[in-house]
Design brief:
Number of helices: 9
Strand content: 5-15%
Number of strands: 7
Shape: globular
Largest sheet: 7 strands, mixed
Structural class: alpha/beta
Helix content: 40-55%
Strand order of the largest sheet: 1-7-6-2-5-3-4
Order of helices and strands: HEEHEHHEHEHEHEHH
Oligomer: single chain
Radius of gyration: 16 Å
Length: 219
């Protein structure tokens, strides 16, 4: 049932919005992982980010693509929880779980063990349009535990303008998405996170006009 719901949502909502209304252009689509286990990591400025990343995958795979999202936000109400779990297929993560003796990443480990593909936003939450915030290190723990699993970076531009944080009104804007080369665990957390940030910066230069890089750069 969940698989049918997700397919219906993709066909009736996600593909028309992303491909027709927004007309997102994509660089290096061939780098998208075609089977799991794998991790796709991206910058995060809008709810449209998840929608856009889901459209990168064929319908036959969509049930195995799992956005990772904060449980305290997406499960806070009954209707939102039902939609997030059954239609979007999120993996809810308990923020601050480590302080409660819970490994917040265990659901991600379980999903990778099932051969699924994770969508992760290392910034942790939606930021300001066209700005890259500091990256949280959770993805490095996943990379360390699964050194053979590809961590594929992606960078979006324009989605934060089309539907910024706090807005649910869609405004068509010129949108681009670039997919980077896969990264693997390097043996050192700081080095891995630096490589990931460098990859994001490289992709940003490929999709953002220069004025956005010079004015919005927080690095």
């Amino acid at each position: 049932m969940k698989r049918l719901l997700r397919i219906a949502f993709m066909v009736l909502v996600a593909y028309p919005v992303v491909l027709i209304v927004l007309g997102v252009s994509i660089r290096h689509r061939e780098r998208i992982p075609r089977r799991g286990p794998a991790v796709l990591v991206a910058n995060h400025n809008s709810h449209l980010d998840t929608l856009t990343l889901l459209t990168l995958f064929p319908l036959s795979m969509i049930h195995k693509v799992r956005p990772v999202a904060a449980a305290d936000y997406f499960l806070k109400s009954g209707p939102m929880a039902w939609f997030s779990l059954n239609v979007i297929g999120i993996i809810p993560i308990v923020r601050g779980g480590a302080q409660q003796g819970i490994d917040p990443l265990q659901p991600c480990y379980d999903a990778l063990d099932r051969g699924e593909i994770l969508l992760i936003f290392p910034e942790g939450t939606r930021g300001e349009p066209e700005q890259l915030a500091e990256l949280k290190s959770g993805v490095s723990f996943i990379a360390k535990r699964y050194p053979a699993v590809p961590i594929v970076p992606a960078y979006t531009h324009g989605l934060g303008k089309s539907m910024p944080k706090g807005s649910f009104m869609l405004v068509p804007h010129f949108c681009r998405l670039a997919i980077g080369k896969p990264l693997f665990w390097s043996g050192d957390k700081e080095q891995f996170m630096n490589t990931l940030r460098q990859s994001f910066n490289h992709l940003r230069e490929r999709v953002c006009p220069p004025e956005f890089i010079s004015n919005g750069d927080q690095t």
